[in-house]
């Protein structure tokens, strides 16, 4: 470095920012916004703008072919007081959530416990059990499921062989909902992997201490496994409950888009699709969509509120 590169005493180097100069910080913020711009633009154009339009349409009479006509709260009033099929869709959806979510989480936890104790082949079985979660939401698998539970299908033939004649589950109102719920239960791979990760984080010392105190395997499961696994269980419960409220493909495939028999599989999203895209009542469908959003938000808030009494966080103590 030459003497000309050394600034004179009391003279600030022009290459260094002056104290309090905010320009370098602004440059960093500008660069951050440049990198964030695809996400911000996507969120605004693909999420926030459609939500705002949907909220507006929920107060209009709109058939997708003519300009929307403002009707105020008429869609909501009609939905709650004049549409019996709406309430049947609510009942079918709630029944599905109550049946499918607990069965799916119980099976996922059972398989995760079995995999945790395995010495060999854990990777293979974990992949095999996870595979249905990759395929279960597809229309092709739902159609195969319908054929399996239809009259003369595999399940009907197996039950007939032992003297139980059902006539096909998808053709009976009392059994069709259960058939759709079993398809969701079959897709237990994602919660199973999460449960397995949680089980592997439980310290072995806790089980050793419980065994020294004479605790049986069941007592260890109740007093050690479940409390330590409760945050993971809560996460899976919230996630699967939200997904269950939005189920569409299985019901559409099993009932051929009609929600039958006798509206037993007329799930909320299926009826929303029927009102919006089949009957061209997009304003009414928008009102249904916003109602579903509020209900899911309320259910999630209740789950978070009740979690204070049964979810244990090791770094915070009893909540």
List its traits.
319 residues; mainly alpha; MetI-like fold; 67% helix; globular
Description:
This protein is mostly helical and 319 residues long. It has one domain: MetI-like fold. It has 13 helices and 2 strands, in the order H-E-E-H-H-H-H-H-H-H-H-H-H-H-H. Helix 3 packs parallel to helix 7, helix 4 packs antiparallel against helix 8 and helix 12 packs antiparallel against helix 13. The mean pLDDT is 84.
Fraction of residues in H or I helices: 55-70%
Classified by CATH, the class is Mainly Alpha
Strand coverage percent: under 5%
Assembly classification:
single chain
CATH H level, superfamily name: MetI-like
Q: How far apart, in Å, are the first and last alpha carbons?
A: 63 Å
Helical run tally: 13
Radius of gyration: 28 Å
Strand order across the biggest sheet? 1-2
- The CATH topology name reads MetI-like fold
Task: Assign an overall shape.
Answer: globular
Give the biggest beta sheet: 2 strands, antiparallel
Q: What do the pLDDT scores average to?
A: 84
